[in-house]
Structures are given as structure tokens and as C-alpha cells.
Amino acid sequence: MLNVTLGLRNTVLIASWNVNSVRTRLEHVLAWLETHQPDLLCLQETKVDDPLFPVAAFEAVGYQVNFHGQKSYNGVALLSREPLDDVRSGFCGELANDPEAVELGEQKRVISALLDGVRVVNLYVPNGSSLSSDKYPYKLRWLGCLKRYLEAARQRDEPLCVVGDFNIGMEARDIHDPDRLTGGIMATDAERSALKEALGETMVDVFRMFEPDAGHWSWWDYRSGAWNRDNGWRIDHIYLSEDLLPTARSCVIDKQERGKEQPSDHAPVVVDLCWPPADDEEESWGDDDWGSEA
């Protein structure tokens, strides 16, 4: 992994984390914010209705909160150190006249906003459950709607950062046992193709800019001792539009977080951007504090 320490450039840290219940994992998230101080933390699977979101706890540590949630399931949120602009909730935030966007938007899985002129889209893609479940075709329809959503967002020519829990291992190197798991849920050709089509040709998986090798996971199932055996998947991604790629200085998975007591089954993923870009300043290369996965 290539690690970067910036000199005097403007550093923007954007993180993505499926916390599997923000109230259950509240102390974990607060401690992580205190340690790493990201500019924006995008949460998925918050599992709380909006009136019960723990706003005060995050405001007390200097973070403003935007959320789009529902009771017990799904839910996305944006925790930011500075106010965000043009917050848009659900597929209807871009597709107000799309009937399918209204239907699919009943599950709270999408929120976006402008951070210093960058459109950050935070997604919690459906899991699909199994190939025989009706949740699998739902997932494919959802990804089809995501394609239209991102196409609409691109019309404003904003730099685009798409983050979240995608529930798809895009390649064999993203799965601990690809020979056995490829072709099953989260690793079918249909899911992979649908996500590629949604992202289009101009969005790039920034983690793979820095780490080409297998063995880097962001999710370990609670079942079957997956964590202790390091049987993971890389299903939490950060994608950047081509105009943002030159500003990327690192992208890491904070694996250490998964090893704590009562953790989420996902680890945070963090991208470090030099934004706005500055061509006349020196960059320095060195170690950072993200631990063994960095």
C-alpha cells in the first residue's frame, strides 16, 4: 500500500463505514471520529428512524449530521465537520419524476451532498440475500435505478465521489475464496455488470489505484469465525470521477476497527484527497497511522 503524508496542501478525508446500527456502535463511531478527524464520514445501515438519530452526541464532538433513515433497517447518514450544501435524500433527490425511484426509495439507502464543491454520494446497496430470493431481482432493479441517478447527477458537472457498502465483490481478488464464492450472491456476473453500468466509464475504484493485490477485506461475516480466519470480502468501495483522481493521495481500509469488542462487521474505508488541488506545493511521502491495513 502506498501511504502519503501531505505537506502544506489542503487535505480532505472522506470515510465510508457500514456501522450496522449507529446507536449500538455509537461509542465506536465517536472514538473513531476523535482519533481520525475525517472531514466527512458516510455511514450506512444506521438502523434508526430519523427522530431517534443520536444527533446531540455527534454535535458534541464537532460534527454536523444529515441523515435519511428508517426503523430497524437500512439508513444512511453524513457526519461533517463543516456544513454541507445541497443535501439530497433518496433516489428522488435526482429522479423526482421517476416512478421506480419513488418505489425503491421506500428503503432509505441513498443520500448525497456537496463538500467543498465535490458531490459525495453515500450508498447502501441491497444485499440480495440469495439467488433464489425475490431480493435478488430487487437488487438488480435498484442498481438499474442507480445508473439513472448517477447519470442525472453528472449533468451538473460536479466532481463526483461515490462511496458506500456495495454488497458486491467486483473481482476474484476481492473475495477470500473466489473459486467457491464466484457466481453466488454478491459475486454474480449480473450484479457486477449492473454496478459497472451504473458507475459508467469515468468512475474509478480509488483503492485499487494504491493496492493491486488480493487479501484486503472490508467485511467479515459474523458467522463461521470469518474474522478469526480472515475470511473476508472487499465490498465497501470509494469511487472517484476522473477529474478527482489526480487529487487522491491514499485510500485505506482501517481493518483494526473490526477487531474491537462488539464491532460492526465492516471496517471503515478512507480516501485522502488534496482538494482543492494545488500544483505548486511539495508533497512528502511517508507512513501514516492507519495500522497494518494501511
Characterize the structure shown.
By secondary structure, this protein is an alpha+beta fold. It has one domain (4-285): Deoxyribonuclease I, Chain A. It has seven helices and 16 strands. Helix 4 (135-154) links the parallel strand 8 and strand 9 (160-165). Helix 4 (135-154) packs parallel to helix 6 (189-199).
Describe how the helices and strands are arranged.
Elements: E1 4-5, E2 11-18, H1 26-36, E3 40-44, H2 55-59, E4 64-68, E5 76-80, E6 85-89, H3 99-104, E7 110-115, E8 118-124, H4 135-154, E9 160-165, H5 178-181, H6 189-199, E10 203-205, H7 207-210, E11 219-220, E12 232-233, E13 236-241, E14 248-253, E15 269-274, E16 284-285
Parallel strand pairs: 2-3, 8-9
Antiparallel strand pairs: 1-16, 2-15, 3-5, 4-5, 6-7, 7-8, 9-13, 10-13, 11-12, 14-15
| Estimated share of beta-strand residues | 25-35%
Total number of β-strand segments?
16
* Helix and strand element order: EEHEHEEEHEEHEHHEHEEEEEE
Number of individual domains: 1
Spatial arrangement of strands, main beta sheet: 4-5-3-2-15-14
Overall shape: globular
What share of the residues lie within helices? 10-25%
- CATH level 1 name: Alpha Beta
Major sheet: 6 strands, mixed
The CATH topology comes to: Deoxyribonuclease I, Chain A
Structural class of the helix and strand makeup? alpha+beta
First-residue to last-residue Cα separation? 6 Å
What is the helix tally?
7
Task: Write the CATH architecture name.
Answer: 4-Layer Sandwich
Give the full name of the CATH homologous superfamily: Endonuclease/exonuclease/phosphatase
Rounded Rg:
18 Å
